[in-house]
Amino acid sequence: MKIALYNFLTTLRRYKVSSLLNIAGLTLAFTAFYIILVQVRWELTFNRAIPDSERIYLVAPVSPFGDEGFSVNSPRPDGEQLIAQSPEIEAGGCVRPWEWDRPVWIRRDGNLLRFQESFYEVSPGFVEALNMQAVEGDLQALTQPNSVALSRSQAEHLQLRVGDPIWFGDKENLRPEVQKEVVAIYEDFPANSSFGHLVGLVDVGDQDIDDPNHWNDCYFVRLHEGADPDAVARRWSELHESLYRDYLERMAPIWGEEMTEEEMSDPRACALIPLEELYFDRHVAGMADAFPLGSATLTYSLLSVAVLIIVIALINFVNFFFALLPVRLRAVNILKVFGAPTRSLRFSFLFEAFGFVLLSQLCAWYVAIGFQRTEFASYVSSSLALGDNLPVLAISLAISLVAAFIAGSFPAWYITSFNPALAAKGSFVGSSAGRRFRFILLGVQFIVSIGLIVFSTITLLQQRYVRRFDLGFDHEQVLTFYFPSSKLTNPDAFDSFASSLQSDPQIIGVTASGNKFVADAVSIFGRKINGEEVGIHVRFVRSNFLDVLGIPVVAGEKFKPEHDRDTTVRYIINDLLARKGLKVGDKLDEGTVVGICPDFHYRPLQYPTEPFAFIAGTYWRTRMSRFYVRLAAGADLDAVCDGIRAKAQKFDPDREAQDFRFFDEEIAVQYARERRISTIVGLFTVLAVVIALMGVFGIVLFETQQRRREVAIRKVMGATTAEILRMFNRRYVTLVVICFVIAAPVGFWVVDRWLSSFAYRTPIHWWIFALALAAVLLVTVGTVTFCSWRTAGENPADSVKSE
């Protein structure tokens, strides 16, 4: 062991440049591997930290809205009856996870303090199904009137304890009879779970308990060990068929309609989706608006990049070892002549390999610690602290040790396998077979580098494509903000507030909607049109909404200002819904279709366009709280925002305007996760190419040293420096071209599969592959020329003398 350690330190001192390059390449690779694996672990362990997560399922019926796949929502009667009649279910309940910000008031030191907080409605069964743990109070007390429960972090933020009062609503409504009480404080859900945003809970009560036609609730059930989820799903279908028929029979006399047998029948399949798979399931309608949604494609792409970076670094590791073999072969054979056992010599080389890897691993951990304080850390969802990622550290260390054994074993075996006489006769390392072996390894690096450049370029182009995609409306120079004032339910008050905003000459248009305009599935009406079940995405808007956002009406007429006060509901539908059979003048529920607009994109571009309708009228169940303000060119954003805040405070002193951002930014939030991961892929692709170039550098240094005599003879025979450089470059250029021929079709297949997850995707241009080839050729020729220049320019006499 002492001799092995001495030999390792000697190698570090004697071969400084090659050792430094080797350690630097491995350090960069291990750092990248650690950072990527932290993100990948965050994604792949989503929801798995919830107790009994493997037995928890989402009840997901086939969507009633005409969408393909399943629905995140289901009716309450069906869910409650399913739980009551299923012996397989240990516990179950519902949650309404839609964002619901509201003003809350807290009395502290004799003063009333106002906060804007989110509270979500749940049933007692949901609390039990998710194994929620109370750290103070009793979660079952949530069923008591005027009760709320807070997560530990939210209670600390609001400085509340069990028994403290809290008020919802306007300041003037803070009466004792509407006072609420904190009855429980529960442990926060894990950050990487579908429920991390549930920081405040209220009881859902009996809302929609007898209405199988309202799909507003997400039901989760925890099954007994060994229970069959398919049997539970089939029971849901049976219950739904029965409950839906009973509901229609009960309501038909009230509606004054006669129902046909077909209308009263609603056979609908159901599936139980495991909680552990929920994060990556993109076939559930409404999932993106209800819970965090990940991308398995992006996650496994990241993992693939990490593995490829390790492969490139280990190829460098092997090549550097082989580059040192000729100068070390003589010393090894001399030791063998003096009786050194082969086993001892091989252990010494393996010890050296492990030493390089462990030293690089320690350097990588040090670099990772430094990354925590950089802007780059914000691109990773989880903490980069070593203590928070012990499993990742263990995996990284295990992989590095296995890699060291694999990468060090072959050179250690090889260099000790020759007869000592070869010390004077050369070896396989300098032979044509040895050169082919090293070039094959280098070729793998080139193939990986070209493939990664193609993939990272495509990811960046897809993000650019999304940013520049014509959504069908004018979202530039539009400011959006949230102002949830109860006074806006009055159309006259709304007009007064909008007029006060538009009095600012920097504002040229003010409108509002009941919720975010660009979102996955804010509100969907399931309706039958010409016998077909159609899911209609709807937005409740002010009459001037289409004008402010530049959406034309191509048939019929626009909304009119008087429609805002009319009890008659009016619709403007998109062309896709018109092609389903609706036309101007048709009735839809209690309203009338007055116009048709072109198809546009109101959902993130991961999803195709669906039937859509704008709704105007005194349909004020949804408040007009999401404002869209078109600004004049060159408007002073800070001044405009300050003016809006002042007018909002004057209009409603108990509320405040918030979440100011440009509409472009609000849309971009829909793609933040993809953009973040694409950036990580791009950065580490550059890193992979840099590591590969280190390998080229090492190989060229080795080759120029081996061919110094040949170069001297060629120069004596009249070869110029330029000809010598072309000779060195020719082989590497040929290798890059061959690797490109292999990498291009593989890269095309990979990026085509990746882009298939987008409903709207950038074309795969030919120049992307040409760019990858040109980039690798350019840096390779530059590296080879730089490394060969000194040898090509040497005096032939000096080269021969040194030989």
Which characteristics define this entry?
803 residues; alpha+beta; 4 domains; 12-stranded mixed β-sheet; 23 helices; 25 strands; 16% strand
Commentary on this structure:
By secondary structure, the chain is an alpha+beta fold. It has 4 domains: 1-46 and 294-430, no CATH class; 53-290, no CATH class; 442-468 and 671-803, no CATH class; 478-669, no CATH class. The chain is built from 23 helices and 25 strands. Strands 1, 3, 4, 5, 6, 7, 8, 9, 10, 11, 12 and 13 form a 12-stranded mixed β-sheet that branches. Strands 17, 18, 19, 20, 21, 22 and 23 form a 7-stranded mixed β-sheet that branches. The chain has a 4-stranded antiparallel β-sheet with strand order 16-24-15-25. Helix 2 (16-44) packs across helix 11 (342-371), helix 2 (16-44) runs antiparallel to helix 19 and helix 13 (432-468) packs across helix 21 (721-755). It is elongated. The mean pLDDT is 82.
